[in-house]
Amino acid sequence: MDNVIFWTIPGLPVEDKAQEQIEALSKLSILSGPLAIMPDVHWGRGATIGSVIPTSHAIIPAAVGVDIGCGMAALQTNVRAQQLPDNLELLRNAIEQAIPVGFQSHDEQRPLDRIMQLGGQEAFAPQLQALRQRFHELTLRDLIGDKSRDKVENVVWKQIGTLGGGNHFIELQIGDDGHVWLMLHSGSRYVGKNLADAAITEARHEAEQRGDVLANRDMAWLVEGSDSFAAYIDALTWAQDYARTNREMMMALLWDAIRPFFPPDLAWSQMINCHHNYVEQVQDYRGTYWLTRKGAVSARNGELAIIPGSMGTSSYIVRGKGNPESYYSCSHGAGRRISRRQAQKLFTVDDLIAQTKGVESRKDDGVIDEIPGAYKDIDAVISVQSDLIEPVVKLKQVLCVKG
Asked: Which residues are catalytic?
């Protein structure tokens, strides 16, 4: 396939729908270089998940996706594996009580400053105040659709510090370094979807006005220099910062929840917090261009990143090698092998129990679509990226919370 570089092998196939999507995307006139396709590649709305898309003077909102700024956070604790409490079910219950999951959010009556104080995290105050101010300065009126700004904002501040559902998770993992790690996966929640949906609608409208001929209208883009592009960049940057703060606040709430179960000298090292659905402007030997990572992580030379597996397999902390051919990127996870619907038809609760043996987690039909068998082999995904990353710590979860 022309204008595409693949990091895949025969054991990590690309399904037909994703192949078609990649081929159509590779022919767009706004590309500033070849697409980079990661080994966790699979079909997604707007653009293939596991793709890195360089564009010149334009951005495709649907390629960024509806969970703007979705990503991972992880930190290493000073707790050793043998210090884990015997009853992990009680620990999981404590985490689920501290952090709303699924469609739940923080109590409407709980003051925002109370959320900031949990875990001694008063430092969140300036971050949240800045986010609130910037939210009111977003200019593209249609960015919140047919909902009033006040209604959207009410949800925004109730949801910060919450997990969501789907493939989002909170986990305790044991690393091959002997330490217990905390890891979580979430994004910009309801507000990110509202901002993305409105921008996608605007891009489609402008594509129709220009008379663009597209294989899929989700490939429509906003043009740099236009008012809508400037408004989208403001909203996009805000949502990415909101998503990062959401993960930081959840980690603070998680820390507060686990503290009673561990020794009083509980401590942690520096947090890794990385997006994998986002845009940044890049300047290198190729010039200046916009880079969309749709299910891909920045892996610049020496940079630490997180590549999770599934709820019953390994995850990895990796160090980037700064390969320019991948636009300094690597995969964002194992990647789905089959769709959610296929997984629900193919697997049973008994399969889920067997495949998540040894992991304290939900074992019901509500999470069958997240069963490890629905995902690619994480070790194969890591090994095929040897020119992009090097593994630092291999992790295996012992506790998993899902919405």
From this structure: 332
